[in-house]
Amino acid sequence: MALFIIGDVHGCFYTYLKLLDYWEPKTETLIQLGDLIDKGNFSPLTIKLSFEIKNTFKNSVHFLRGNHEQMMIDHFQKNSTPFNWLHNGGAEVMQQFDKLNINPSKYKSWINELPLFWGNDHVLVSHAGFCGIGDPFDLKNGNNVLWSRRRTIDLNKTQVIGHTPLTDERPQYYASSRTWNIDTGAYKGNLLSGIKLENDETLIEHLSVPTDPRDIT
């Protein structure tokens, strides 16, 4: 099956729905690279929909952990970190849960179990990318695959990342490290983007939809 990889959604639920219209479940594996939550107006609905998609399609769908999911996990587990989720969008998200009468506890276990990456022999997907400094999976390493904003290194396969919003609003390819960045700043009112690749990393197309005003106003 081909791969359809979606970038940082950040609670932009209606925009997310529009991009999902391009997914072909019978022929494509869906991968979302983290940061479903915070910043936009509908984080609870975004989580709820993603949870239901995963339960429906099982092994043909993969949701990854982003740094915002990690901050949420740390908040609920009362982990000591330099990042306070409530000060980084979490307070608004909890208000959204209350307003929609959705219990976040239903999704805590699922969010806690989100993996840090997905990969095959030709493609590697993670939230922030592999920069070669320290253990990329060590949550105490500020240059890990959740937080790094450094240039990615060549891992002899195509990397697909998000985390750092692009300034020109379109997915960018960095040939030196064979990396696609597909974070096009949906929460900023720009675009939500995805990319379709063959399993052997051949590019099929990249897709972008404008942010729905309902998601940010």
Automatic annotation (TrEMBL):
SUPFAM superfamilies, from UniProt?
Metallo-dependent phosphatases
One of its Pfam families is: Metallophos
Sequence ranges assigned to domain Serine/threonine specific protein phosphatases in this UniProt record: 64-69
Tell me the domain of life. Answer: Bacteria
Q: Which Gene3D superfamilies match?
A: 3.60.21.10
Q: What is this protein called?
A: Metallophosphoesterase
Q: Which InterPro entries match?
A: Ap4A_hydrolase, Calcineurin-like_PHP, Metallo-depent_PP-like, Ser/Thr-sp_prot-phosphatase
